[in-house]
What we know:
- By secondary structure, the chain is of the alpha/beta class.
- The protein is built from 13 helices and 7 strands.
- The protein has 2 domains: 58 residues, Helicase, Ruva Protein, domain 3, CATH 1.10.8; 219 residues, Rossmann fold, CATH 3.40.50.
- Helices cover 45% and strands 12% of the residues.
- Strands 1-7-6-5-2-3-4 form a 7-stranded mixed β-sheet, with helices on both faces.
- Helix 5 packs antiparallel against helix 6.
- It starts with 22 loop residues before the first helix and ends with a strand.
Amino acid sequence: xxxxxxxxxxxNVRCSMKHAPECIPCLMGRVLxxxxxxxxxxxxxxxxxALKKFAETISVEPNSARLATLVHRSSYDALGVSDPYRDLxxxxxxxxxxxxxxxxxxxxxxxxxxxxxxxxAILGNIMDFGAGIAIESPEEFDSVFESLLKMELAIDDTxxxxxxxxxxxxxVYIFDNCGETVFDxxxxxxxxxxxxxxxxxxRGEPILNDVTLEDAQRIGLEDQLDRLLTTGAFAIGVxxxxxxxxxxxxxxxxxxxxxxxxxxxxxxxxxxxxxxxFLLKAxxxxxxxxxxxxxxSNVAKMVIRT
Length: 306
């Protein structure tokens, strides 16, 4: 049972993930990338709208995720397309599914099956297209899969995760990208086998290549969960100001939250939530510095605020 005396405070994790100068080319590079996806002649209008919104809000919205949400909303509106990444998302799922038997073999042959499943879940976080910090298309995944599978965790709090999971409560699992979600399934199965109820949370509306309810249903994700909810909004990561009542209740009652990817880390850092395991690849300098690791590192970081 997870006892109060084992709770650890992390004073080095600040209350908010603020945007940095490095965020500007990353954000605008992704806007340009997504503006070209529909091929509808509205690339310039999309970029212009995004730049205008960025200039209006950078000085008044310090949080990197909320700033990016506003910028992408302007881009999508100008494009007139609700899900410009849809084709990429389907292709990402197809690329990931090819490796299902390979990762399951890797997990079963590992000395620590739980830790191996965590590493596999983080492996999928490379499915992050358009910002120039990961792979740029699902078809590139084949060339990096084996090297990703061999990577160790730069921060390894899997032991703390297991201790909480062994209390057999509820784990809320906040998903990130399509394709990546395929690699989350073995970890979810491990957690449920350990006696926990698992509630999944996907994005409320299409944004980037993040998984939505439609995407989850396409790959049968809901069949792996006890309950599937959404964030209830168009948002990079999770905007707790807009989240639905049922999702909020599950987050508040959870024994642990697992948050995948950098966007969830950036958006939830300022929230006083239940013990949260951030599973991600630190793909940029600002996030790596915030976490306390090197760019390119794989991280399973437990954050418990007292």
